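Justification of computing resources. Each target in the renewal requires a structure prediction run like the one illustrated here; the chain below, 282 residues long, is used simply to show the kind of job we budget for.
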Amino acid sequence: MRDKTLSTIFAFFLGTFGIHRFYLGQVGLGIFYAILMFTGIPTVLGIIDALVMAGMSQSDFDHKYNKIPRKVQTKPDYQRRAESAEYDTGRSANPANARQATTIQQKQRQQKPVTRTTTSIADNVHKKNGIRKFKEFDYPGAIAEFTKALELQPRDIAVHFNLACAYSLTENVAKAYEHLQKAVSLGFNDLDKIHTHEALSYVRIQPQYLKFKDSNFTEYAPFAKTAEEEEKEWEEQNAEPLELPEADQSDLLEELRRLQNLKELGVLTDEEFLEQKRKLDA
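Resulting structure tokens:
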């Protein structure tokens, strides 16, 4: 371990011979000083080296000559909080002022109402599911998902517009107009999209469209049916077809087998078999 004070003394008094360089482990420089000692240059360099080392801090000396890493100075938590309080309030950073600043900030938070805008995860899920089903041409499924999304976020402009498109594609014009009107009233301003969007073609061929367009999509002529009636009719049209009772299907299969047997026996010709089969299918 090299000593800073001893190195400085060697440099000042024995710098001509490069002793301090040998002491510091810089053998090459020590030899260089020794070769030039009769020129007087090492004497001047030794004095300069002594002044430089005298002005160095102990940590800098240890880092340079003893290869000791500099210590990372960590501040206590209370000091960092105090400095933060000083930055916020412009006061002297000490624990007392830090506590005072904290009290002031707490009072300000209590006095100022906090408004939080939260987006429900479920809302995002329903919206994403609705878009996915829309792209898969499952328009009734998309309508169901978008409707659930509106229950959680009733002012979502994009969901209203997507619902209008889905209702238009399923020819439920009353609901399509209703959601288009809501989207515009909430701030939807891309009106050209209403004129050109392929999914809204059915909306544009309705007699109400011209008045709707002239009113900047805020008013339209009433429909012959109410929105509730349109909704009920749409649900009936999109309901799954009823299956024949198992008994009826069994009778139909039995009759087909009987006709096939008669054909194979030669009782019925091919034309007669097809005619009887056609009557059963009807």
